[in-house]
């Protein structure tokens, strides 16, 4: 399935994710969980693109200020130093800037920590208790995600081979209805894309497959498919599918192979049945056969009469004349001709 289709959003705006039970539903779980992590702003933490900031030192705000400390000058010696006149070396402005810097560092650190825990909880809540207890990296969502992918993604390869084989077998022979064939091709293609993360098929492969398979339903799709004959790059598969489906609305009749018509029922004979009809039928077939032979001979004569006479040998023929170019005479013809000449010489000698 695809996260853009067939998914149900919860009250929090996240897609309803199935409970991970192992390799059987890992592909579906991984796609929906990836989408939820992105929606929650946790995906960069899971992938490691967002590096955890260092814990600020000193780590305090107005909420967790050390006991008895009322100002920055009491917390950090640098800001509590005075000169000989008894005035503070660091100005009040410098103290305010330092306090704001500490607050920003603490806010960033706490924000990252909350997102990290949120990512871990999202993954943990969508797994069975048994699978969760088997995990080694429970506190690091990035390491946990890699561990799950290593254990279950590769385990789905044998199942993927079956899905690819099933996709290759989807032809007109298995789905004689063009609308059904269109639907099953797209459904199976989407299923494979989810499993492979769109890493195998070129985006235009399904477009080619639609055109290739629908061409077998000629003449049903002759007109809509003609526009794709000369294109170097196919349009999007959804566009082709919509065009073919729109054409099917007005051309729903599926062309069938021609069948031999049923013979008309025989009329009642006016006289007693004899063998004369069978004999007449046989005579008719013989006459038609002779007529075809005569027509073939006439065609051969007419075609040969259109060939001009050769000035060298006085006969009609195609190609080079063997009298003028004896070296071009085939060897078996040459042997027959020499044998015939020897026979004439022997007869003349007798």
Description:
The protein is mainly alpha-helical and 350 residues long. Among the domains are: 23-152, no CATH class; 156-250, no CATH class. It has 14 helices and no strands. The chain has helices at residues 26-39, 43-47, 72-75, 77-80, 92-125, 129-134, 141-152, 157-168, 178-196, 205-214, 222-226, 237-250, 276-305, 331-349. The chain is elongated, with a radius of gyration of 44 Å. The termini are far apart.
Quick structural overview:
With 350 residues, this protein is an all-alpha fold.
List keywords for this structure.
14 helices; disordered N terminus
| SSE class | mainly alpha
Largest sheet: none
Helix content: 40-55%
Tell me the number of strands.
0
- Strand-and-helix sequence, N→C? HHHHHHHHHHHHHH
| CA-atom Rg in angstroms | 44 Å
Distance between the termini: 98 Å
Strand composition percent? under 5%
Number of helices: 14
In the predicted model, the low-confidence regions spanning at least 5 consecutive residues are 1-6, 257-264, 267-280
The global form is elongated
Average pLDDT, all residues: 74
Oligomer: single chain
């Amino acid at each position: 399935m695809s996260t853009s289709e067939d998914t149900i959003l919860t009250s929090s705006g996240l897609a309803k994710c199935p409970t991970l039970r192992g390799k059987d539903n890992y592909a579906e779980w991984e796609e929906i969980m990836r989408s939820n992590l992105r929606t929650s702003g946790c995906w960069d933490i899971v992938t490691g693109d967002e590096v955890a900031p260092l814990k600020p030192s000193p780590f305090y705000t107005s909420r967790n200020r050390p006991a008895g400390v009322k100002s920055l000058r009491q917390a950090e010696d640098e800001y509590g130093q005075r000169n000989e006149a008894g005035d503070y070396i660091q100005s009040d402005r410098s103290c305010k800037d330092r306090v704001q810097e500490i607050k920003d560092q603490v806010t960033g650190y706490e924000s990252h920590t909350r997102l990290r825990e949120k990512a871990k909880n999202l993954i943990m809540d969508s797994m069975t208790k048994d699978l969760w207890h088997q995990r080694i990296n429970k506190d690091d969502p990035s390491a946990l995600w890699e561990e799950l992918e290593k254990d279950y993604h590769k385990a789905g390869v044998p199942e993927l081979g079956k899905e690819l084989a099933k996709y290759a077998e989807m032809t007109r022979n298995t789905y004689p209805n063009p609308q059904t064939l269109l639907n099953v091709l797209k459904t199976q293609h989407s299923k494979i894309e989810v499993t492979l993360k769109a890493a195998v098929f070129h985006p235009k492969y399904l477009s080619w497959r639609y055109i290739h398979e629908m061409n077998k339903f000629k003449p049903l799709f002759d007109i809509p498919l003609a526009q794709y004959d000369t294109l170097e790059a196919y349009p999007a598969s959804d566009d082709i599918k919509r065009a073919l489906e729109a054409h099917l609305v007005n051309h729903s009749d599926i062309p069938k192979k021609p069948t031999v018509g049923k013979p008309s029922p025989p009329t009642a004979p006016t006289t007693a049945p004899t063998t004369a009809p069978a004999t007449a039928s046989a005579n008719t077939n013989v006459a038609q056969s002779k007529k075809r032979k005569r027509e073939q001979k006439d065609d051969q004569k007419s075609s040969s009469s259109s060939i001009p006479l050769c000035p060298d040998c006085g006969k009609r023929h195609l190609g080079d004349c063997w009298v003028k170019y004896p070296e071009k005479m085939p060897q078996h013809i040459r042997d027959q001709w020499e044998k015939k000449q020897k026979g004439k010489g022997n007869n003349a000698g007798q």
